[in-house]
Amino acid sequence: MKKLFKRFFRAEKRFVNESKRELRLLITFTLGFTIAFTWRQTIFDLSQEFIKFITNTSNYSFLSILTSIFITFLSLFLIYSTSHWLKERNDS
Fold this sequence. Notes:
By secondary structure, the chain is mainly alpha-helical. The protein has helices at about 1-55, 60-85.
């Protein structure tokens, strides 16, 4: 009976530690998403000014589409670069 209680409290401690770890991850994810959401418009506006400077276009719809395409390609490049840089290497 004593072993059962020890095993139960050991499992409870692991559960509490895992819960704390998951809560920290949730808070980090939430705050990261909040930061990204607040910078979204700023990045779009800066990119739009850059595209406007390059193309000299005044059509807002066309400019918005070009800006979105530019941000998409830039983001894909950054994703590819970081995934290549962070890839696990098997050094045998």
